Structure formats: structure tokens, C-alpha cells
């Protein structure tokens, strides 16, 4: 669940920064990321912390969920194109795939399925966003508190490296937890988005019923191994890149717009994490479609066997099939998430101050 995990947990990272800064002794990600610079820029650091929006947990959850839904809806056409490219190699002649292009595939979708088909599966994506954001937010806080109790780590509480380790492990574990608990919705979304002219699954409830009927309960968790293997490093890379860039930027240029800073740093973190973990995301998609709609299984082995099969039949480039629409999706998608999230936090913080 690469993109979903990245957006869900990295967005929550912004929430933890504001939340932690509101508690005495909190080890917030922003505090940890900028701590090494505070001795050189005490005034800028103080201004930065004073301008962080202070809102409660429920407001954070609402902000994260709405931000994810807005981002997914805006980038749904590119997300569907990514899935269509990723699964083409399963049942298609590889020689014909080299001729495919984003524009050609987009034109085919409009001509054969209609413009609304670009948003096929987006409803289940939005339905997946709220529980995923809630679980990842709650799990991150719990894991972070637990990791800070690890023997020996409390002695290095003021160390930047220790704080980074807590963020990385906490974010990775939170992503794995949220991905596992909401995985069936992710699988249904993939199968709905991968349908073209033949509509085997008629909606979310029908897809869940048909998968359980045809493949058993275990069918709802096809590809979970690739998801869990990739979600940890994906979130760790995205989370650390975002936090590092944002901390540097805000310390060096404290008066820049928080929205623009979030947009730039979020987009770069998305590109970095997608590049490293895209092959596992491709394996996940193909595993999710194994046996769908009664079709024959293509990959008889596990994750690494599937990777070898793809390289043997499609070449190394086959591991990055669909990477371009993924890039086009990640840059605006993650940027929209952070922009929407920071904007909603500011609005809710303003409403809270008015009520007080």
C-alpha cells in the first residue's frame, strides 16, 4: 500500500508535530528535526514553534482524512492509469506494451469507457482513507511512546539521531498496522480500477462478496506480503525526507509560506519513496489481481519469485512499468495532501481560538 501508506502516515507526521508541541516534554518530529539548529537560530526556532497551529486529536484526524480524500479525488485519473500500466504485463504480449504511452492509454479509457471511468474505484479509496488515517495516527503515537521507553534510548533523548530513529520505526510500524487492518479495501480498489470493458465487480460490497465466494477469506489479503515488505521502507524514506527538508527550510527561511513549504517537501518526499519502492508496489498490484474474475494465476511463487519472473519475461524495465504516471500523480498528490492538511489545521486552530 505504497502511496496510501505514504500519504496517510506522512500527513499524520505533521499532526504529531503540532500535537507534541502542545505538551510539556513532548518529543515532536518538528522539535527533533530542528533541534540541532536551535542553538544557532534561537529566535527563528521560537517563532517557528509559536506559529504551529494548536488543535486537538479529533481535528487532526478530520484534517488528515479530508486531505487524503481531496488528494485522491484530484489525482484519481493518474492513479488509475498507474494501475492499468502496472498490470498490463500479466496477460498481455510484452512486445505490444513497449508501444504504450500515457496519452494513448488515457485516450483509450475515454473512448471505450467514458471520462467518468478515470474515477473508477475512487469511492472505495475515500472510504479507505478515514480508517487508515485514524489507525495510523493512533498507532504512531502509541509506537512512538513505546519506543521512547526502550532501555538506553532515554539517555539520548536530546540526540537528533535517536529522535530520527523513533520517527522512522514508529512511522514504519504505524504504516504496517494501518495497512494490515484496512487491506481488503485496498485490494477491492485495485480490482475495481483494473476493470476495463468487462465489469465483473459491480461495486464495493459486490466485490467483497465475490472475492470471498470465489477465493475465500484469504483472497481479501492477496499481496499483503509485498505490501508489508514495502510499506515500512516507503514510509521511512518519505517521512524522513519530508521532516528533514521541512526542518531545514523552516529554520533557514522561517517566513516562507507553510503551505508552499509543505507542497515542495511533500512532493520531493513522494518522488524519493516511490522511486525506491515502486517494484514492490508493482508486485503488490499483480498479486492483488491473481485469480480475479476467474482468470488463471500467473505467478506461482512468492514475492521474490514474482520479481524474478517479471525481470525474466519483461526485463528490468518491467519492474518500473507505470512509474511515469506515478510520478505525475505523486508530485501533485502528496503536495495537495500537505497543502490541504496544513490549511485545515490553520482554519481549525483559528476557529478554536475564536471559541476560547
From TrEMBL:
Domain of life: Eukaryota
Biological process (GO), any one: organophosphate ester transport
Membrane topology: Multi-pass membrane protein
Protein localization: Membrane
Low complexity bias locations: 32-44
SUPFAM superfamilies: Mitochondrial carrier
Gene Ontology cellular component list: membrane
Gene3D superfamilies the record matches: Mitochondrial carrier domain
Pfam families linked: Mito_carr
Record's keyword terms, sorted: Membrane, Repeat, Transmembrane, Transport
Region (Disordered), start-end ranges: 16-44
Ranges for the Solcar repeats: 55-146, 162-248, 257-347
Annotated family: Belongs to the mitochondrial carrier (TC 2.A.29) family.
Entry protein name: Mitochondrial carrier protein
